[in-house]
Amino acid sequence: MKKSFIGILTFLAILLILTIGVLYLSLINVPRVIPSKRVKKLLGNLSNKTGSNIVNLITMSLKLLHNLKWEFDIPDGVDTNSWYIAISNHQSWADIFILLAAGHNKIPLLKFFMKKELKWIPIIYLVHKTVDMPFLNRHTQAQVKSNPELKKLDYENAKKAAKRFSRNPSTAFSFAEGTRFTKTKHDKQGSPYKNLLKPKIGALAIALPGMPQVNSLIDFTVVYKSNRRSTWDFLCGEMSQAKVKARIYDIPEDLKSEAFEQEQEYRKKFKLFIERIWKEKDSVFSELRF
Length: 290
Description:
- By secondary structure, the chain is α/β, with parallel strands linked by helices.
- The chain has ten helices and eight strands.
- It has one domain: 3-Layer(aba) Sandwich (Glycerol-3-phosphate (1)-acyltransferase).
C-alpha cells in the first residue's frame, strides 16, 4: 500500500513539474517566430537552462520520495560548453531520468531523437519545439524497397534534424540498442554480448556528419540493483539503487564527414566503432553489477 502511494505521488510530482516547465518554455519561446539566428540562439540557451532546472527539480523530487542511492562516475574532460554525441544501454523508462541526472551540470542537456509518432502528444511536441529535440521521420524497409528514393529522403531529413543541435552546445543522445533489454529479446537476437542487445547505429550515424562541432562520444552504462523494470516499478521506487559509468571516446576523423553516395561504407566504419565500444561496455556492465 505504501509503495502504491509513493508511486502515485511520484507520478503526480513528475507530471506537475513537466507541465509547468513545458508551459514556461512555451511562453519564453514565443519570440522564435522572429527570423533571427541571434534570437534563436539566445532562446536556445535560455531553454537549455530551463530544461536543466526541470531535470534538477525532478531529481530532487525522486530523492525526497525514493531515498535515491544513484552512483555516478563521470570522467573529467567534459563540460557544458561543448558538443557531444552519447549512447547508452536501455533497460527501463527510468533510464531517461537517471541519465539526465547523471549528466546534469556536467555536459549539455541530453537531446533525444524522438519517433515521429510521438509528435501528437502535446507535451512531447512542445519539448520538440522549445528544447530542440528533433523528430526522426524514417520510412520502413518495405517502403524503401518499393521506392529506393525514400532512403535518400530519410538521409536528408536526419541531417536536417541534426542541425537543430548546432545552434547551442548539445548532447545528441540515442539508446543504441533501439529497444529495452529483456532476456527474451537477448535470446531471440542471439546477442554475442552477455548483458546487452546488439547495438544499432541508426540516427547518430547520419547525424554526426551534420554536427561538425562534435569530437567526442560519451558512452553511458546503466546498472540497477533491482530486476524489476516496469514504469510503475520505477514510480514506486524500485530503481532507487543504480550505478552509471560514463566513458569518453575520441571520434575518428574519417567518421566526421560523409556524403550520401558513400553512406554504406561510412555505416560499416561507424558500426565497427560502436561494436568496439559495446564489447568493452559488456565488461563494464559486469563490473558494475550489485
